[in-house]
């Protein structure tokens, strides 16, 4: 039941004392600006909820926000640009103003934290104007004049999850009267200058090569299976809070000598690859590109995917763990790139390979981010997707107030649904004293019981690995998670699971009903061959390939044939399948000669 509407007032907050600066945008800013110009604002803007420490006055909370703006250049940054063009420059103001909306309630809903989260989400729905808008939309929720929550939305061009966590930590220190140390982390302009050095340019080139290798050879989609359709899904949040999981994770780390974060990533990848029946786990790990010391506490958007490819073709968990750190570090080192050039490369490779790279799996470990707390929902985006979401309207007490008596052995709580461009999205909020994860999965692939079983299976895998090495062949028995059953007709071609009959249907549909027949070659190098009966139309392999590529988004089980064979007439339905091979050939080819 909703209470009375709060009294709303707007406070204009003026600031001065910063330095005016100007320079190029960073690679991460350019990456996120592309997404902001393309995507709906509620998908790409991010938000957070900060509980206000007890005893804080409204004026003090606002003064601390003003101090943050003076301290951090990103919050004083706008991006001037001509109409119709993406910004290439950023300008840092020395002085200016922003507003805070004060919502003073006479009564709050029973779940005040969820209400604050809803206010923050509401602040996300309006697009930020990059050339003039302040980068935060701030609401201060109060009860009879006493502030309880800061609910804010942020432009993803100026902050990401890690930056918001740093801001919250600084804000709390200011409210506590602590003197903040000088900022030593990269400002956005510092990072832009570093990226333009010879070393920065070499790292960008190496990142493009890393991505190209994975996109050329890895699975086109982790979830290429029946039911995986559409480019976006509405997924319901599922939150795991488990003391059992945290204890098991600590024991595995102690037994193996691995870092808890690496152990958890290994277990997650093992389970995802097991469920999808893939020989490798390809996942985006967005937060991990802050592994450099001067980026760890940078108030900036460093949102560029680190693309992980972990080969699971090993006998046991310990063997996989021994590979995971190197694979993760390789991904982290290659997460700084020119987004425009990356997409040019992806477009070229996918046209040649005949697939569409799908950012199916996102794993975002923010458990080590400064001040990372479950309150609020935040979004992270890599350029290969819109925005992954971090969403928790959960316990908003600071972590140090939790007690053993509060810790659930294994608790699973459903939450609100969001539209996402991924099949599985996971945020790790905490690994001790609780294992605390937020997960969203495609409901067409994971009905509620299977989604819960997946998270329960993760805890079971950690518990088994805590007692000793676990054969990967035993994952079904250990975790209860079963590999997908694709059914007859699915085959692995060019490292990807493919349904030739679906390829034929897609081709026929893309060519407005032209009869199509697709067969698998004798070897993986041969790939698929498509036979197309064009009748009197002058169909070419290039036209067939282009039409199919245009129809691929949202069809992860479809891979373009390596060879298109154009014939005049389709054989009669009663003829055996081999009759297609005996038809007179009009034209044939790979269809890759022309790239629109």
Short key terms for the protein model shown above:
five-stranded mixed sheet, 16 helices, alpha+beta, 596 residues, 33% helix
Topology readout:
Blueprint: E1 7-16, E2 21-24, H1 27-38, H2 41-44, E3 46-51, H3 58-71, E4 77-78, E5 89-92, E6 95-105, H4 112-122, E7 136-143, E8 146-154, H5 161-175, H6 188-195, H7 198-217, E9 233-242, H8 243-256, H9 260-276, E10 280-284, H10 293-296, E11 307-311, H11 317-333, H12 339-353, E12 361-365, E13 376-380, E14 388-392, E15 411-420, E16 424-430, E17 435-441, H13 448-467, H14 475-479, E18 491-493, E19 496-498, H15 500-510, E20 516-520, E21 528-533, H16 541-551, E22 563-567, E23 585-589
Helix pairs in contact: 3-5, 7-12, 8-13, 9-11, 9-13
Structure description:
The protein has helices at 27-38, 41-44, 58-71, 112-122, 161-175, 188-195, 198-217, 243-256, 260-276, 293-296, 317-333, 339-353, 448-467, 475-479, 500-510, 541-551; strands spanning 7-16, 21-24, 46-51, 77-78, 89-92, 95-105, 136-143, 146-154, 233-242, 280-284, 307-311, 361-365, 376-380, 388-392, 411-420, 424-430, 435-441, 491-493, 496-498, 516-520, 528-533, 563-567, 585-589. By secondary structure, it is of the alpha+beta class. The strands form 7 sheets. Strands 1-6-7-8-3 form a 5-stranded mixed beta sheet, sandwiched between helices. It has a 5-stranded mixed beta sheet with strand order 12-16-17-9-15. Strands 20-21-22-23 form a 4-stranded mixed beta sheet, with helices on one face. Strand 18 and strand 19 form a beta hairpin.
